[in-house]
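queue> pop job 88
queue> type: inverse folding (structure -> sequence)
queue> payload:
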């Protein structure tokens, strides 16, 4: 009876070892997911780097302001507004098909950054003036010009 137990235990041990070994081999086979590889291609683009640089600078400035000021401080509100715009632009860049990643040039990044700056300026003007004010209208037209240029590159 003990010999039967021995073989049963040995068989069970061998099967468990085999199962664990096969799982380890499967875990070590790394096949990058296509979407992950596409995201890496896009994240290495000059346009993405330009937007990420600005976002990082603004996050750093926000941290500095929050050491001395509250969330209600106008500059803190402005930076948070701009960070929201930058996050939207990053999402748009990441949504680009990997096959079109060649369009994500430094020039596009600069266009996106200038548009974000103009949108932030417009937001500040709207806090001071109504929508019919000439300065607000002028800022809106500038934003539209940059949006058209961006759409020529990324329809």
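queue> result:
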């Amino acid at each position: 009876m003990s010999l039967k137990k021995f073989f049963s235990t040995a068989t069970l041990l061998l099967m468990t070892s085999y199962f664990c070994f096969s799982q380890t081999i499967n875990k070590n086979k790394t096949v990058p997911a296509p979407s992950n590889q596409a995201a890496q291609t896009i994240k290495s683009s000059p346009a993405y780097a330009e937007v990420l640089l600005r976002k990082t600078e603004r996050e750093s400035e926000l941290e500095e302001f929050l050491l001395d000021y509250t969330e209600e401080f106008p500059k803190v509100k402005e930076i948070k507004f701009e960070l929201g715009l930058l996050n939207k632009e990053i999402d748009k860049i990441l949504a680009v098909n990997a096959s079109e990643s060649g369009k994500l040039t430094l020039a596009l990044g600069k266009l996106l950054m200038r548009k974000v700056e103009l949108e932030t300026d417009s937001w500040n003007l709207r806090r001071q003036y109504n929508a019919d004010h000439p300065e607000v209208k002028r800022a809106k037209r500038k934003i539209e010009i940059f949006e058209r240029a961006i759409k020529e590159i990324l329809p």
